[in-house]
Amino acid sequence: MQPGKRLQGKVAIVTGGASGIGAETARAFAVQGASVMICDGNAALGKAVVEEISKAGGTSQFATLDVRSESQWAEVVAATEKAYGKVDILVNCAGISGRDPKMNIQTSQTAGPRLAEQSLESWNLVMDINATGVFLGTRTVIAPMQRAGGGSIINISSICGIVGSFANAAYHASKGAVRIFSKAAAIQYAPDKIRVNSVHPGFVDTPMTNPGHSNPDVAKTRLQATPLGRFGTPRDIAMGCLYLASDEAAWVTGSELVIDGGMTAN
User: Fold this and answer.
1) Were 58 and a residue from 30, 235, 236, 261 both cysteine, which residue would form a disulfide, CB within 3.0 to 4.6 Å?
2) What does CATH list as the number for 11-258?
3) Is residue 243 annotated as a catalytic residue, yes or no?
4) pTM (two decimals)
């Protein structure tokens, strides 16, 4: 790799950028020279990440975004082009587990309801945010990336998009959809030099997983399934996203980057 910043002059949009993997990815991109539009539903946390990046000498802005909204996606992408002139990178990181948001400590091994207890409403919510949100974001940035001469779309899936488990079936279904959607989009837009890849984190310590990892039994089960013997950190995943966003990955599209401490090697 040549010395210097790996994303110098590039413009990125990161959803779910107020915390966890999204926030760490935004920080990593900014450190490497990208201008970053951080998007989330939590404005207070999102603006705090922007302030942190600014103090470190980086460039970023915050935009409120419900990834289920076509109109909000159009507004965010237009605002990004207006502010920075183009869109080179999209990281679709926003997602939910399907767990009851009021649950501070997960009471069973399953993050959401078991299949027989899954309501249509809760199924649709998980699919809308985790899968439809990725579709809308990807679709909205296609034209700007074509104008820019190419780009990199990074869709955060999960090991749950590759293998099954006792976890929430809606979450598995949504993340599996992200995996295959990314491959189809990669093939369709390869002629435009738009690369589309999926990232598959294992068990990572984030605000979303905190209720599960706060239960010693759940944490023990997950650690025992992870050969490297520790939970991942948001930075572990952000570094994979940085590679896929950079020109170092210029010949990488339609791929699955698994970052899971060896869990799916079992």
Assistant:
1) 30
2) 3.40.50.720
3) no
4) 0.93
